[in-house]
Amino acid sequence: MSVGPQRGYGFYTGLYVVVASMVGAGILTSSGYTLRETGNPWSLLGLWAVGGAMALAGALTIAEMATLLPRVGGDYLFAREAFGRGAGVVVGWATFVLGFAAPTAVIARLAAKYLVGPVAGPWQDVAEPGLAVALIAACAFAHGLGRNESAGAQAITTVAKLVVLVGMALVGFLSGGGDWGHFHRGGWPGQGEWPALAGSLIYVGYAYAGWNAAAYLAGEMRDPARMVPRALVGGCLLVGALYLALNVLYIYAIDPAAFAEMPMGDVGRVAELAMTTLCGPGIGRGLSLVLGLGLIASVSAYLMSGSRVLAAMAADGAFFPLAGGWHASRGTPVGGVACLGFTA
């Protein structure tokens, strides 16, 4: 085992981790609930623009901190340096459990649900958790192989996710099955819309979560003073543009007024409903598979980022020593990856 991390990652690895951490299931579901409550397409777009601006502000702040402290650990490191070891331990364990272990398990199970859904059967209750465990194990194995393999796995899964979502938007717009007249509805939010928008902003904020991901790798990135801010800001801008494009697609596909008549259980399937409207009912199964594959990038990113928190904590004696070892030739925190993967 080596004594610590090595600087081998570049801009694109940081960018891919940010994008994969941010883009999850929220963009595929949250907008339907907002449209059901408001029926106002411009309120929806404004809401996601505000969420993007908030994420960008956070990314700029974290970029400043990561530049001053270009080491692995992210939130744990910042809290420890600002408020002392005790605060760092509390933040570190909260980040481990709530920020990485739990989301990794949830996203892996959701990915498995999308992948198994098209071929559902009486064995689905067994297949879903089994496949979720297999996805976590496969991603953990890839991140333990070595620095190059870890970066490659993150690049492949993230690019695949972007191709899926950008392709979905392009196919939807080119289908010609929607109506741009849907944007004639609404305008500046009415008095009754503000409470609904305030509540929806919470879910939009969750959909943008992950904008700080590259900061966890600051101790492994070449020229962190340049690379980390570029990865954080670039990732936020890319994801913000993608989110706005997908919301435009939803509005183009479905009359916002129609959401008010839908059962609450249906509006959360806004992405599926939009693509079914634009491309026909046959697209449902294929869309489920590609969305499931796209979520694997998030599982990979959480394991890659979260393992660095465990490694930093273990080095300070705030976590199990197993998580603190860095492989001498592979350049990865194999113990941290294994601990996070097992916990998830």
Summarize the structure.
The chain is mainly alpha-helical and 344 residues long. The chain has 13 helices and no strands. The relative contact order is 0.25.
Helical content, roughly? over 70%
What is the multimeric organization of the chains shown? single chain
Compute the number of helices.
13
N to C succession of SSEs: HHHHHHHHHHHHH
Question: Overall mean pLDDT score?
Answer: 91
Q: Can you tell me the residue ranges where pLDDT is under 50 for at least 5 consecutive residues?
A: none
Distance between the termini: 24 Å
Largest sheet: none
Sum up the overall morphology in one term.
Answer: globular
What's the arrangement of secondary structure elements?
Elements: H1 11-22, H2 26-38, H3 41-68, H4 75-83, H5 85-116, H6 124-145, H7 147-175, H8 194-208, H9 224-253, H10 264-267, H11 270-279, H12 283-315, H13 334-343
Helix pairs in contact: 1-7, 1-9, 1-12, 2-8, 3-8, 3-9, 4-5, 5-6, 5-12, 6-7, 6-12, 6-13, 7-9, 7-11, 7-12, 9-11, 11-12, 12-13
Description:
The protein has 344 residues and is mainly α. It is 72% helix and 0% strand. The chain is built from 13 helices and no strands. Helix 1 packs parallel to helix 9 and helix 5 packs antiparallel against helix 12. The radius of gyration is 21 Å and the shape is globular. It starts with 10 loop residues before the first helix and ends with a helix. The model has no long low-confidence stretch (mean pLDDT 91).
Question: What are the defining features of this structure?
Answer:
344 residues
